[in-house]
Design brief:
433 residues, elongated, single chain, 20% helix, alpha/beta, 4 domains, six-stranded mixed beta sheet, Molybdopterin biosynthesis moea protein, domain 2, Molybdenum Cofactor Biosythetic Enzyme, Chain A, Molybdopterin biosynthesis moeA protein, domain 3
């Protein structure tokens, strides 16, 4: 069995004690194996689920040539035979769902509404606002140069042709996708099963909500941010609560999590403190690729595998992410390292998070040799140019800075101090957090 450590050591820039973020992302990506189980669900239950197979259109959309305007359908040959003004006799009317069945010659037209089938022999629609009707409403006239042949006609299959892929496997279903499939008459779809993620916090100082705070204790916020971030990604979650800093309790929690989940997330317990036992335990029944990243916040982050049995390879396996204990670091490492892995394991095809360039409104101190994710407030000036201001204290324990911010200021591994007015990368929270 190839261990994560053996594989990771072949990655460029590999340093298990200070791994560059890009190298860590590459390692995690290689081990994020998609779940294989497939479920068939009603269309209404497919929102946020990952398609397990391509959806091929069984019909043309639209199913027939139709009018894109309220107006008059006619044969474009009339444009070529008219010098300046086109004169046409109204042969009838076509409404959506009520097509005109008769023949239309080049001297005639049919009154059509938007979405109505194009009458036989007609290929062009003149909008009603461009025509002049006769006093008895039996004919119309309009300027011959007012439009071109084929104008305002939607062709059958123009939106989606029969036999073509409507949606690809790996797509996370959105509201518009449900509408698209409904337009094809599809009421059920095959989706990957939801990824199961177990998580818990470690620390003797942590208290759950509703418990009294003893001197030196704090309420556990990490499980709630983890729950929210996982729920937003449509994961099945298993909250194992707060686990005390005791080797036996931690071992039991890790083995139980591995037995019941695809991924195990912990917060706290992976630094170098005297009571941080997670690292010791994983060396017994786990397999770890790296323990520390060259990033701020989030330096103490472990990634590997853990088994439900007594030794690596025994029992059921799960990917393991040991996140830092500080609240902001938990969120940063989740979005920069964990998020993509969870999507890949769900069978999704993740899209890179969008990054914008913005002018910094103040100088930012930065040490080269690590990637930093500072919290910022971004906006646009009167000319539409983006600017950003850090949210004061960038301590990884100040969770309020995440609530105040609307973006990450992403400072690359090799970047140093940023001067006021210089441009930086920003990653907007909208759609992310």
């Amino acid at each position: 069995m190839t261990t994560l450590n053996e594989f990771s050591s072949c990655v460029a820039q590999y340093d298990p004690h200070a791994l560059p973020v890009s190298a860590a992302q590459a390692i995690v990506r290689q081990w994020a194996t998609p779940v294989t189980a497939v479920e068939r669900v009603p269309l209404r239950d497919a929102l946020g689920r990952v398609l397990a197979a391509d959806i091929v259109s069984p019909i043309n959309v639209p199913s027939h040539d139709n009018s894109a305007m309220d107006g008059y359908a006619f044969n474009s040959a009339a444009l070529a035979t008219s010098e300046s003004t086109v004169n046409l006799t109204i042969a009838g009317k076509a409404l959506a769902g009520h097509p005109f069945q008769g023949h239309v010659d080049t001297t005639q037209c049919v009154r059509v509404m938007t979405g109505a089938c194009m009458p036989a022999d007609c290929d062009t629609v003149v909008p009603q606002e461009l025509v002049e009707r006769s006093a008895d409403s039996t004919s119309i006239r309009f300027a011959a140069n007012a439009l071109r042949a084929g104008a305002n006609r939607r062709l059958a299959g123009e939106d989606l042709a029969r036999g073509h892929a409507a949606l690809r496997a790996g797509r996370i279903m959105r509201a518009s996708d449900l509408g698209l499939l409904a337009s094809l008459g599809i009421g059920e779809v095959n989706v990957r099963r939801r990824l199961r993620v177990a998580f818990f916090s470690t620390g003797d100082e942590l208290r759950s909500l509703g418990e009294p705070l003893d001197p030196g204790s704090v309420y556990d916020s990490n499980r709630y941010t983890l729950f929210a971030m996982l729920r937003r990604l449509n994961m099945d979650t298993l909250d194992l609560g707060v686990v005390r800093d005791e080797p036996a309790a931690l071992e039991a929690a890790l083995r139980s999590a591995a037995a019941s989940a695809d991924v195990v997330l912990t917060s706290g317990g992976v630094s170098v403190g005297e009571a941080d036992f997670t690292k010791q335990l994983l060396q017994t029944f786990g397999d770890v690729a790296f323990w520390s990243l060259a990033m701020r916040p989030g330096r103490p982050l472990a990634f590997g595998r853990v088994w439900s049995g007594a030794h690596p390879g025994l029992g059921l396996p799960a990917l393991f992410f040991g996140l830092p204990g500080n609240p902001v670091a938990v969120m940063v490492t989740f979005y920069q390292i964990v998020r993509e892995a969870l999507l890949l394991m769900s069978g999704a095809t993740p899209q890179p998070l969008p990054v914008l360039r913005a002018a910094s409104r103040q100088a930012i101190r930065k040490r080269a040799g690590r990637t930093e994710y500072q919290r910022g407030v971004a906006g646009q000036d009167a000319h539409g140019q983006w600017h950003v201001t850090p949210t004061g204290s960038q301590s990884s324990g100040v969770l309020s800075s995440m609530s105040e911010a609307n973006c990450f200021i992403v400072l690359g591994h090799d970047e140093a101090d940023i001067g006021e007015g210089e441009h930086v990368d920003i990653m907007l929270f909208d759609g992310l957090i």
